[in-house]
Amino acid sequence: MPTVLGQNQYGKAETRVVRVTRDGPVHHIRDLNVSIALSGAMDDVHLSGSNARVLPTDTTKNTVFAFAKEHGIASAEEFAVRLARHFVTGQEAIGTARIRIEEYAWDRIPVPGPGGHSFVRRGRETRTAQVTFDSGGAAGERWQILSGLKGLVVMNTTDSEFHGYVKDRYTTLPETRDRILATEVNACWRHVRDGEGGGGEEGKAGWDERYERTRGHLLAAFAETYSLSLQQTLYAMGSRVIEQTPGIDEIRLSLPNKHHFLADLRPFGLDNDNEVYFAADRPYGLIEATVLRDGATAAVPVDLTNLP
Amino acid sequence: MPTVLGQNQYGKAETRVVRVTRDGPVHHIRDLNVSIALSGAMDDVHLSGSNARVLPTDTTKNTVFAFAKEHGIASAEEFAVRLARHFVTGQEAIGTARIRIEEYAWDRIPVPGPGGHSFVRRGRETRTAQVTFDSGGAAGERWQILSGLKGLVVMNTTDSEFHGYVKDRYTTLPETRDRILATEVNACWRHVRDGEGGGGEEGKAGWDERYERTRGHLLAAFAETYSLSLQQTLYAMGSRVIEQTPGIDEIRLSLPNKHHFLADLRPFGLDNDNEVYFAADRPYGLIEATVLRDGATAAVPVDLTNLP
Amino acid sequence: MPTVLGQNQYGKAETRVVRVTRDGPVHHIRDLNVSIALSGAMDDVHLSGSNARVLPTDTTKNTVFAFAKEHGIASAEEFAVRLARHFVTGQEAIGTARIRIEEYAWDRIPVPGPGGHSFVRRGRETRTAQVTFDSGGAAGERWQILSGLKGLVVMNTTDSEFHGYVKDRYTTLPETRDRILATEVNACWRHVRDGEGGGGEEGKAGWDERYERTRGHLLAAFAETYSLSLQQTLYAMGSRVIEQTPGIDEIRLSLPNKHHFLADLRPFGLDNDNEVYFAADRPYGLIEATVLRDGATAAVPVDLTNLP
Amino acid sequence: MPTVLGQNQYGKAETRVVRVTRDGPVHHIRDLNVSIALSGAMDDVHLSGSNARVLPTDTTKNTVFAFAKEHGIASAEEFAVRLARHFVTGQEAIGTARIRIEEYAWDRIPVPGPGGHSFVRRGRETRTAQVTFDSGGAAGERWQILSGLKGLVVMNTTDSEFHGYVKDRYTTLPETRDRILATEVNACWRHVRDGEGGGGEEGKAGWDERYERTRGHLLAAFAETYSLSLQQTLYAMGSRVIEQTPGIDEIRLSLPNKHHFLADLRPFGLDNDNEVYFAADRPYGLIEATVLRDGATAAVPVDLTNLP
């Protein structure tokens, strides 16, 4: 046969599960979008159509709902670890499971009295998690746990310059000493794990706390960095997370430069002293980089936009 | 000629203007998406292509930027009133101007020290405004000022029932005494105006305060209503706004019923006591209604999804 | 009570039904997205939550599937007529039904042999239909049947000028004698009906043929009009449809002016003789108008973007 | 310093260029969306904000427009090769350039007479290309040329079965001997290159012809495969491309299983002999695999959704 099968994976994508936990009149919710990708000894189904080793994607979806009931959802990371372990240990043909989760945050609507079952969606930023578990054969089990966020839109209205760059035949951009710097933060960080996915320092609340702290570092570094380039701001954001978080060794950031162009008001006899801007959609600069703890090995995928 | 020209309008849609106001080290921003529609004596341009009465859409875009500089943006409503008046009074051929604005909210990123130029986008809910000004000829000027919001996603995890409905041959839905009620609030309310658009009780801050109060009423009524139908909840939301706000006579609500179906866990030997739900995308129920102050005349468009 | 209920409607939106008809080895498909809005005597459900007059939206969804089986889908228009009549005549509380349908077109994939069950989606243009049936009480039944399309993107690379327009203080646009004219055609036309919705000249195939002829007129008029303004092109498109189609009395067109700006290559020592363009997203001009047969009364909604 | 910089790249994303070529009254157009990512010796800009080695992303955008003028756009692949070579050979600091292009296809609108400057967008399928050029240092230059498509939606209304799969505790899916098989083909194939990017068999028209042939193989294999699993269909599609095209050694396919569920009409006393389906949005199965020529080494990225 002149062709062979390469890397392959399958599973159910975008299962939307909402888990309600009732603590008397006070309810708690977790709202997730779960995507499962399984891989292993799957030559037969590709070559002959035999499904003898195939757990249906419908079953992987059912498992999400059943596990939400049986085990609850303490956090996206913990839920993903549980699912990954289940598929790899439960199916002989499956060697690797990758669980990607988007989580949508809700705030409580304040109400009089003791209740607490009313919520409002928090906004556009989406929290993400990705757990990959490889049974590893003789090499032993390998876990990778990534957390992240996407769609966190931020802006500095000053303290950003851009000058001193290379000029070639096609360069027309004027240098600037004061511009708007705006971006949509897409980030993915890798947790240090020395045991299996479920172990480590993080307990039930640990993943949520670490997420909030990491998000806070990203915002603070963005706001507090006097920027000579978006790359510099990116590096400041990434290194602050690494330096402040012993359990995180690597972070990947993808920062579209959301250009705000000064409106040209001179034809109307008006100055524009950095007051009126046109917010452009496309094209946009795209600045991407990984920041690592010294000595760590990079493992976060280079292209973030498909996480999860 | 067997054909005639009916209603027509033109203008520049979706001009994205960001206005920065500098108060020493503290900056303030307004972030708008402005769409302009002008109409009037425009037969010639349709029938012969003569542009002699046509102010280019490019000019209407320029006017947005110039006005942002010259007058600032105290609020979306006030800015829309100013633009509407300008086009109708400044161009003989223009009899009516309709200005639609989406506004995106930003929160401050807290930083040490006295500064304040760092912001984070608040979320998915979008504030809207629509001002229509008709010069009116002999009938005199007419103003209509609408405010609203879209994309405010809310959920009650209990205190919602649905039963006692009509059953016909095609009815299979089981009745329920406890369900999730979730929707995305799209709302548009009409302000009472007895003078021109720029007058009235609202000053620079008035429109923002009224918006926040109205949003609060919508959330509170959603959370506090024990619901027998989404229509009942809708009416409670709308009537609360009218009753609590003397300056608002009418509100239109469009509430998609974002269905959350109980996952069927019985095949796995598990109960599901309103704990695990599947959040469905389509189809969805769509509940729409206008609530009016007794004696008021309806004027808000029936279809909200195109506002602005 | 200080508040009253105004216009209201409810139903299931976006039911995605695919109907396969098997003609031996040759299959035919219809792929629809159906949205139902019912209105009538619905005060109780809003005021007290009583569902005694409410047919569940779930039932309206079931009806779509059941009717697809029982009656087939000869065309979107015919299917919508049938659904509208069913809800209005079958439910005492329902006085008006509005059925909106999007239809997605598929082409056959050519295969050897006699079969014919493989298809490829045709593209971005979506065919639309909207049928409104009002039982009318003493005034008698009223039907309105609209057909349309959205997302038909077209471009002329020459034979478009724009000059001779009004200049005010904010005008900077240079006049041009040769530009790209590109738009996304969104159109909705109203059929003359002298009987009930199901009657008239159109049979099973009639609606499809009329759609294809109307689409052809729109494309031909766009391509063959030497344009001095997009309004002129719009009117040429609309009047051609009316003049060529006795059964259509009115058409509404919404044409975003998809700007293609000449790239400025002078800084690089290059001419740009209408060869290289930047295709902009926002803002865009938006040109909208109704064209009517002389003597007809306008009835198509002014805002098309919400159809359906 | 405890942190170090890992993989990084930057450039302008989504530059929308339209190129018109005038052949007397007949015009030809190319409509591209170009994204550029450059990488190399970029430590300084991240660590200190020095832009001394940074060619602005604005310049990379300008280069797209200038090259469209100077060299025309014979094909997306050829244009990407030219851009990649320019950035790597022209900037000492740049070691690698990755050019991603989406191309939108247009058909001619037929008109009487000799002209030909009117076009209609063909549809939803988007053609893609990605060229990566690495100067390689001592190892010598390396080129990778990928072509692909996304959004090609296809459906077989029969000749698809699914049974014989693994059942575990969470399996509820009934086996089926006749179902709809529908998917959206996302594909990326790698061209064999033994010289630099600009060489090889493909001339000006070669890339377009190869694209059409490859697309045709994908459609034919989808239509002609009697399917026992979507994996089997995927492999048939991929191996057909490899077997029929000596210049292609590898193809990656990402096929969402767009589920069409039989509507349950039994409650209404109706059969549903594979006639009426509900087209679901989410969740969906996602089947992904690489097919290789025997002996070839896989190089196409596993995650296609970010190409380009």
TrEMBL record, chains A, B, C, D:
<comment type="function">
    <text>Catalyzes the oxidation of uric acid to 5-hydroxyisourate, which is further processed to form (S)-allantoin.</text>
</comment>
<dbReference type="InterPro" id="IPR002042">
    <property type="entry name" value="Uricase"/>
</dbReference>
<dbReference type="Pfam" id="PF01014">
    <property type="entry name" value="Uricase"/>
</dbReference>
<keyword id="KW-0560">Oxidoreductase</keyword>
<protein>
    <recommendedName>
        <fullName>Uricase</fullName>
        <ecNumber>1.7.3.3</ecNumber>
    </recommendedName>
</protein>
<comment type="pathway">
    <text>Purine metabolism; urate degradation; (S)-allantoin from urate: step 1/3.</text>
</comment>
<keyword id="KW-0659">Purine metabolism</keyword>
<comment type="similarity">
    <text>Belongs to the uricase family.</text>
</comment>
